């Protein structure tokens, strides 16, 4: 049975750090657009979002893509399950620890799921030689990884991902990269040029490893499926909106298995507004930079008290206090009106690991103070 990790109690009295989405909520333009389009519920929405693929293409600098290389989903989640049941691969490899829904989606499709567990001692980085050896031995029909990764916050270099995809192309394997948190990455050397495009022209060939500053879809590598979420960055989890990028033949196969009208009228209206948003991304990025600087300054003080916090490229952190279960920590923090996410259900993590997201300054201050009090009592 599916279970959401967010806090389900009295939200007025508890600050929920477990949910890693924008704390600003949706842009005002999205709210206004939905209010102005209430009468549109009398009509069917676009059956598969074909017209909106052109909008995505223009708005997110995907102009070098053919719209047939894009698919819009009811959140990134729909596209994960759609990919699994459309392709029904015999075997996939998951880079763990990572988002649990990948495993569930493929197991429901009857796929054998194998794991490649990353070591905590190496900061959950990918040992390229070992992964390549595992891939060569298993030859899975798909490799799934999340970059930046949930829950570790680790960003995997694009050149590494391109090399993985190139190796997998020798047996027609597909590299599935979930980039749902890509927009939260601040480092320009990692995130790259926003004016670049993702999956370049379909007639590209050869081992085009591209540049680390160019998004993955600008590589010309054909055997990749790249997943993006608009839910997280734009604070619209109740609307559900995401999109995928891949070769047109793969997208066509996904569309053949996709139910009609899965994306509702209000989600499409939100997309119409989001694509023209300029102030919201700028404001959120400035906030993220300030809050990461604030927290990381205080993390050093907490590390001296025994807290372990792993480096993160995005808007959430993985941590633990050796000798203290995350469940106990969760209960203690809840007494202070703070809720965090325990991570014992992630492969490769244990009962001590927990995750928390960035929130507004007053909330982050309360978290730091509560952790300091627990560590010094």
TrEMBL record:
<dbReference type="InterPro" id="IPR004839">
    <property type="entry name" value="Aminotransferase_I/II_large"/>
</dbReference>
<dbReference type="InterPro" id="IPR015422">
    <property type="entry name" value="PyrdxlP-dep_Trfase_small"/>
</dbReference>
<dbReference type="GO" id="GO:0008483">
    <property type="term" value="F:transaminase activity"/>
</dbReference>
<dbReference type="GO" id="GO:0030170">
    <property type="term" value="F:pyridoxal phosphate binding"/>
</dbReference>
<dbReference type="InterPro" id="IPR004838">
    <property type="entry name" value="NHTrfase_class1_PyrdxlP-BS"/>
</dbReference>
<feature type="domain" description="Aminotransferase class I/classII large">
    <location>
        <begin position="13"/>
        <end position="371"/>
    </location>
</feature>
<keyword id="KW-0808">Transferase</keyword>
<dbReference type="Pfam" id="PF00155">
    <property type="entry name" value="Aminotran_1_2"/>
</dbReference>
<comment type="similarity">
    <text>Belongs to the class-I pyridoxal-phosphate-dependent aminotransferase family.</text>
</comment>
<dbReference type="InterPro" id="IPR015421">
    <property type="entry name" value="PyrdxlP-dep_Trfase_major"/>
</dbReference>
<dbReference type="InterPro" id="IPR015424">
    <property type="entry name" value="PyrdxlP-dep_Trfase"/>
</dbReference>
<protein>
    <recommendedName>
        <fullName>Aminotransferase</fullName>
        <ecNumber>2.6.1.-</ecNumber>
    </recommendedName>
</protein>
<keyword id="KW-0032">Aminotransferase</keyword>
<keyword id="KW-0663">Pyridoxal phosphate</keyword>
């Amino acid at each position: 049975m599916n279970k959401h990790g967010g806090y389900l109690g009295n939200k007025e009295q508890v600050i929920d750090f477990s949910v890693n989405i924008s704390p600003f909520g949706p842009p005002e333009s999205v709210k206004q657009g939905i209010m102005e389009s209430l009468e549109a519920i009398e009509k069917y929405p676009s059956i598969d979002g074909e017209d909106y693929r052109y909008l995505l293409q223009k708005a997110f600098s995907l102009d070098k893509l053919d719209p047939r290389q894009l698919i819009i989903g009811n959140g990134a989640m729909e596209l994960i399950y759609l990919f699994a049941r459309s392709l029904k691969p015999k075997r996939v490899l998951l880079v763990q620890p990572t988002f649990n829904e990948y495993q569930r989606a493929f197991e429901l499709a009857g796929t054998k799921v194998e794991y490649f567990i990353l070591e905590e001692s190496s900061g959950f980085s990918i040992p390229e030689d070992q992964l390549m050896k595992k891939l060569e031995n298993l030859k899975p029909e798909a490799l799934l990884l999340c970059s930046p990764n949930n829950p570790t916050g680790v960003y995997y270099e694009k050149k590494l991902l391109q090399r993985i995809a190139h190796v997998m192309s020798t047996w027609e394997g597909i590299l599935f990269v979930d980039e749902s948190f890509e927009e939260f990455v601040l480092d320009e050397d990692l995130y790259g040029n926003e004016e670049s495009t993702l999956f370049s022209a379909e007639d590209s060939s050869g081992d085009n490893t591209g540049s680390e500053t160019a998004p993955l879809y600008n590589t010309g590598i054909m055997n990749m499926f790249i997943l993006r979420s608009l839910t997280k960055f734009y604070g619209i989890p109740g609307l559900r909106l995401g999109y995928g990028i891949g070769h047109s033949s793969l997208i066509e196969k996904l569309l053949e298995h996709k139910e009609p009208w899965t994306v509702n009228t209000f989600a499409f209206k939100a997309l119409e507004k989001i694509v023209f948003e300029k102030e919201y991304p700028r404001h959120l990025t400035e906030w993220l930079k300030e809050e990461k600087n604030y927290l990381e300054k205080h993390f050093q003080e907490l590390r001296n008290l025994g807290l372990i916090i792993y480096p993160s490229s995005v808007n959430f952190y993985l941590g633990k206090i050796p000798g203290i279960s995350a469940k106990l920590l969760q209960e203690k923090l809840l007494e202070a009106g703070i809720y965090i996410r325990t991570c014992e259900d992630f492969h490769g993590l244990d009962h001590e690991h927990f995750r928390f997201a960035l929130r507004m300054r007053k909330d982050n201050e309360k978290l730091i103070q509560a952790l300091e009090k627990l560590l010094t009592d």
